[in-house]
C-alpha cells in the first residue's frame, strides 16, 4: 500500500480577513500555506507543541484571546484566557506547570474593567489549580485595540498515562463528548445585542482538566485523542481528526447534546450547532472496549452529567465527517467556512 | 540592623494610559499595585519566571510586541518578537528550548506584509538558533488593531553556569554594557516621520545570547545580574537593580557608548539617552576581580567591539542611580516617567 501525502493548501489570498482567524478552512490555509513554510515548526492549529527538556516531556501552547464583548453571561475574556490555555494542555494529555499572560490594553480602558479581568484571571487560575508565573503589559493608543486582548501561554508536563495520537485512532473507536455544545458561541453572539433574542444561556467556559484526568484514569492508553472544540466547533475538530487519522467519523446527530436555546438560535441564524464554539467541552476518541467505562467516568465529574457517546470511527468515507439523524437522513459535516461568529474567543 | 520592607506602589489611576505600558514608573505601579495582588505570582516586570519541572529548572518569559511602524531601519516587529524574547531568556541565564508566537492581525492587512513578518520571525529564529514550536492566529476587525501585534513566549533551561541574583550584587561590582545605547528607540522614533531628522541610524535588534554565553564562560558565578535594557532604557533597568539590591549605582556618563546621532536627537527632543529603548544590548553586573576578563570576552563577540565598563556599585546613596560626568557634574538618574516614546517594542 502506498501512502499518498495530502496536498498542503496554498495561500493565495491577497489580504487577511476575519475568516483567517475563525479556526476553520481559511485558518488552516493560512497556517499550512503561509505560517508553517516561513516560520517552520508550527505543527498544527490546535495541539500543544511537545518539547523535550532533559528527560521531561513538556507541552507548550499559546493562544490570543480577542473575544467581544469582554464580559458575557457565564464568563469574560479573563476566564477564557485561563481556561482556554489550560484546556489546550489538558487535551494534549498534559498537566499544567504554569501559565504566563500578556496583556495588550487600549489606552483609556477604565481601571475597574481591567481590575475585573485580572480578578477573573486570578480566580480561574485558582479554580483550575494552576499558577500564573509571569506576564507582560503593553498599552496601545485609543482606537488601536478593542479594550483588552490577552495572550496566554501554558507550559505543562505530559501525563505519563497519556498516549494520544490521531494515528492510533481505528475504525470501531467511539466519540465521546462531555456536555452540551454551542453554549459559548451563542451566548457571546447574543451578548453583542445584535440579535433580538433573550435567553438564560451561559458560556460553558471552564477547565476540562478534571474530564481529561477522569478519562485517562478510566481508560489510560485506550484514550486515543482529545480536543476542546473551540473556534469552528465540534465539526471542525472532528474534520481535523478525520483528515489526520484517514478514516471517516459518523456522528449520531440526535445523540449530540444541544440545548433548545442553542438549537433555536442556530435555526434562526442559519448556523449549525456543530460549528459553534465551546469553551468547556472535551471531545475524545476512545477504544470501543472502554467506551462505557470512560463515559461513566466523565459523567461522574461535576458538570459532566450530560456527557454522551455521539459517534464512531468508520473505515469509510475516508477523511470525512458524516452526521446521521434518527429520521434517516445523512449529511456531510464540513469544517467551518468563513466566519459567521467573529471574535468568539 | 532591621530590614524595612519597601512599600508597594498603590494603583489609584482610574484608567489605563500609554505610560502604563512604557516600562517605567507607571508600569511598575500597574504591576505591583494591580496585577500582582489580583493575579498573583507575577514576580517582576522583566525577569523570566523560573519553574521546576522534575529536576529541570525552566525559565519562561512572555512579551507582546506592538511596535509602530511595523518595519524600521535595521529590523521589524518580527525581528523584535524573536530577539526580545530570546534576550529575556538570555539575561535570565537560560538557554532557549523553543518559542511560541501568537499573532493578532487587523483584518485587511496585506498578505505581503504578513509574509514579510513571518519571514522575519523565521530568519531571526534561525539566526538565534531557536525553534518556533507553535502558535496561534486571531484576526480582529479593521480599526481594532494596528496591522499586527505579536506575542512571543520563550521557554528555556537554566544554564548551570548561571547564578544570577540582585541580592548577590555588592559594592565594588562593575557595570558592563555590550554596546551603544539608544539606537533602537531613536530609530523607531525617526521611522515614524514625525520629526524632520534624517539619519543612517539602525535598530540594534539582535540576539544577546552570544554575549550572555561569553560572560558566563569568562566569569561564571561572578556574573551577578544581567538585563536587556528595552522599554525605559538603561536608566530604568539600573534603577530596578538599585532598588532590588539596595545599593547605589554610579554611572560614568562619558563611558556609556552613545552614537552622536542618538545624542543629537535626544538633545533636540529633550530626552535622556539613558531612557531610550535598546533591543540588542545586555547590561551586566560582574565582580571587580573578573571585570577586565569579562569585558574582553564581550568585545570578542561579533558586534561587541563597543562593549564598555560604565559604572560601579557603591554603598551609597542607597537604591539610587547617579551619573557622573567628566566635567564634574553628578546627577540622579530616575526611572522613565511618562511615555515619551510610545510603542517602541
Structure explained in plain terms:
The structure is a homodimer of 345-residue chains. Chain A is an alpha+beta fold. Chain A folds into 3 domains: 1-45, no CATH class; 46-158, PurM-like, N-terminal domain (60s Ribosomal Protein L30, Chain: A, 2-Layer Sandwich); 166-332, PurM-like C-terminal domain (Phosphoribosyl-aminoimidazole Synthetase, Chain A, domain 2, Alpha-Beta Complex). Chain A has 8 helices and 14 strands. In chain A, strands 9-11-8-12-10-13-14 form a 7-stranded mixed beta sheet, with helices on both faces. In chain A, strands 1-2-7-5-6 form a 5-stranded mixed beta sheet, covered by helices on one side. In chain A, helix 2 (77-91) runs parallel beside helix 3 (111-128) and helix 5 (209-219) runs antiparallel to helix 8 (291-300). Chain A is globular and about 55 Å long. The model of chain A is unreliable at 1-5 (pLDDT under 50). At the A-B interface, helix 1, strand 1, strand 2, strand 5 and helix 3 of A face helix 1, strand 1, strand 2, strand 5 and helix 3 of B.
Amino acid at each position: 500500500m502506498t501512502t499518498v501525502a495530502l496536498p498542503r493548501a496554498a495561500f493565495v489570498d491577497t489580504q487577511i480577513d476575519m475568516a483567517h482567524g475563525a479556526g476553520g478552512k481559511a485558518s488552516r490555509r493560512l497556517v499550512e500555506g503561509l505560517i508553517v513554510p516561513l516560520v517552520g515548526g508550527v505543527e498544527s492549529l490546535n495541539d500543544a507543541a511537545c518539547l523535550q527538556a532533559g528527560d521531561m516531556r513538556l507541552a507548550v501552547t499559546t493562544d490570543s484571546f480577542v473575544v467581544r464583548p469582554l464580559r458575557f453571561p457565564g464568563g469574560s475574556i479573563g476566564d477564557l484566557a485561563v481556561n482556554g490555555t489550560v484546556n489546550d494542555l489538558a487535551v494534549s494529555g498534559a498537566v499544567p506547570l504554569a501559565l504566563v499572560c500578556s496583556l495588550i490594553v487600549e489606552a483609556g480602558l477604565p481601571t475597574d474593567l481591567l481590575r475585573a479581568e485580572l480578578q477573573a484571571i486570578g480566580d480561574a487560575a485558582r479554580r483550575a489549580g494552576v499558577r500564573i508565573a509571569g506576564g507582560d503589559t503593553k498599552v496601545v493608543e485609543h482606537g488601536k485595540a478593542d479594550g483588552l486582548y490577552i495572550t496566554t501561554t501554558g507550559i505543562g508536563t505530559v501525563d505519563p498515562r497519556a498516549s494520544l495520537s490521531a494515528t492510533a485512532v481505528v475504525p470501531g473507536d467511539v466519540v465521546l463528548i462531555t456536555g452540551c455544545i454551542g453554549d459559548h458561541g451563542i451566548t457571546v453572539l447574543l451578548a453583542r445585542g445584535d440579535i433580538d433574542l433573550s435567553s438564560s444561556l451561559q458560556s460553558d467556559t471552564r477547565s476540562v482538566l478534571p474530564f481529561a484526568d477522569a478519562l485517562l484514569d478510566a481508560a489510560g492508553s485506550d484514550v486515543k485523542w482529545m480536543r476542546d472544540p473551540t473556534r469552528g466547533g465540534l465539526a471542525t475538530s472532528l474534520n481535523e481528526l478525520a483528515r489526520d487519522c484517514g478514516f471517516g467519523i459518523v456522528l449520531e446527530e440526535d445523540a449530540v447534546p444541544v440545548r433548545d436555546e442553542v438549537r433555536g438560535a442556530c435555526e434562526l441564524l442559519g448556523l449549525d450547532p456543530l460549528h459553534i464554539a465551546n469553551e468547556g467541552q472535551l471531545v475524545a476518541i476512545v477504544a470501543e472496549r472502554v467506551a462505557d467505562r470512560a463515559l461513566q467516568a466523565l459523567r461522574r465529574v461535576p458538570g459532566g452529567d450530560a456527557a454522551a457517546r455521539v459517534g464512531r470511527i468508520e473505515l469509510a468515507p475516508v477523511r470525512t465527517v458524516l452526521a446521521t439523524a434518527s429520521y434517516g437522513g445523512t449529511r456531510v459535516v464540513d469544517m467551518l467556512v468563513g466566519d459567521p461568529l467573529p471574535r468568539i474567543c
